[in-house]
Write a structure and sequence with these properties.
This protein is an alpha/beta fold. It has helices spanning 13-25, 47-57, 72-78, 83-92, 133-142, 161-167, 205-210, and strands at residues 7-8, 30-32, 39-42, 66-68, 97-102, 124-128, 145-149, 173-176, 186-189, 195-199, 215-216. The protein has one domain (7-216): Alpha-Beta Complex (DHBP synthase), CATH 3.90.870. The protein has an eleven-stranded mixed β-sheet, sandwiched between helices.
Length: 221
């Protein structure tokens, strides 16, 4: 069976959003562009879809997966906020920063994002408000989207839609937004005091310090 064609986001962004919303809402998995790298996405409430994302990536189940959100309000509905969160949100969102915090206590869905290994204990969630119109438009329709880089774990993320789809085994809805050559998002854990940078990315420790948030040295995950 031939591979389904990718949808050209630039040619018809409305159709691309509609196709992604249909697929995600039906419990499917989508390869999509962001302003950083290509991602593979599913809805957090669809356990089977989340499992498929992990299986295709060869990703350990305890590894954090971020939620891409449409705006700051969606982010604040997922994660407990403090002054540091607000400083970072004001300085860097929308943009390539993922913030890890304690999950809001009233969330009762099968949220995929917590591993309970923070300093204070309890489930965590990583959230990012991306600087990408397509992703935000999808999240407006379906809510926060569980998204991780579209690659096999430990391998580079391809910078084309076709390469990303092939790396994950094919057979997925693919939204082709052209080359994605940005740096991955910086990941900052706000459950630690001071905050801890757990992945270096487009935003540096100096940038975070200038925004008024003290950070520890980078720890690799």
């Amino acid at each position: 069976m031939s591979e389904p064609p990718a949808l050209d986001v630039g040619a018809d962004p409305v159709a691309a959003v509609a196709a992604a919303v249909r697929t995600l809402s039906a419990g499917g998995v989508v390869v999509l562009p962001t302003e950083t790298v290509y991602g593979v996405a599913a809805l957090p409430s669809c356990r089977n879809a989340i499992d498929e994302v992990f299986r295709r990536k060869g990703r350990p189940p305890e590894r954090l997966v971020a939620a891409l959100v449409a705006d700051g309000d969606q982010a604040r509905a997922l994660v407990e906020v403090d002054d540091r969160f607000e400083r970072l949100a004001t300085a860097f969102w929308p943009g390539p920063l993922t913030v890890v915090g304690h999950r809001c206590g009233d969330r009762d869905d099968d949220l995929f994002l917590g591993d309970g290994t923070t300093e204070g204990g309890g489930a965590t969630v990583g959230v990012r408000w991306p600087d990408h119109d397509l992703v935000r438009a999808i999240a407006v329709e379906v809510g926060p989207i569980a998204t991780t880089s579209a690659n096999r774990t430990g391998q580079p993320t391809p910078d084309t839609a076709a390469g990303a789809a092939a790396a994950l085994g094919g057979g997925l809805l693919v939204l082709d937004g052209g080359p994605c050559t940005g740096e991955p998002s910086t990941v900052v854990d706000l459950t630690a005091h001071p905050a801890r940078v757990v992945r270096r990315g487009a935003i540096t420790e100096g940038d975070l310090e200038r925004a008024g948030v003290s950070v520890e040295a980078v720890e690799r995950r």
